[in-house]
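Hey, can you fold this one?
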Amino acid sequence: MPEKYLNIKKIKSWAEDDRPREKLMLKGKSALSDAELLAIIMGSGNKEETAVDLAKRILNDVNNNWHELSRLSLAQLKSYKGIGEAKAISILTVLEIGNRKSLQFALEKPKVTNSTQVFELLRPYLADLNIEEFWVIFLNQANKVIAIEPVSTGGISFTLADPRLIFRNALEKFATAVIVAHNHPSGNPKPSSQDIKLTKKLVECGQILDIAVLDHLIVTQKEYYSFKDENQM
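Sure. Predicted structure:
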């Protein structure tokens, strides 16, 4: 057996409270590191690395950020030795479950009072996308969320939003206000001239229908631009 393989200690040989699965059972899920959680999902590593070591390397390549990991494609995950199609699918499935969990509301609908809350609501939908999408938050008279829905999908740097579709949906939901948002995959939250024109048009349409457009957010992975906060509404 090659010498480089002799120094690899299998996880089964570790102390019981150091093995990821046993550690979870003994100390609880919060005691596990990100690498240990990912190792449990993968189940095994490769001839040169334990599952934990492989997990550490994968996470290191995405700056130890689960959002960045969720953006990897099936092919990119399979490029790691020891990650076949089944493991790659398992990783993406678990990450998608986590994403959907974060999107589900409690039974009490959240009330929106500032742009930071809006950003936290929309971030799971928009932050990790590689193309632009336009979304709308529909609100009742108490500024509580009725629904959050996509309106359109565009390209890498542009998407169109039809005011008629937005306000038709608002009327159907008996919404008295909306907050619109789209993402910038480039990471730059600065609005374009088209973003500014669209915002003005939406506000004008809302005034006619007595449906307030409270804000327009441009969302990136780490930050956002609020037209309201910047006095652009």
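Residues 3-103 form one domain. Let me know if you want another pass with a different chain boundary.
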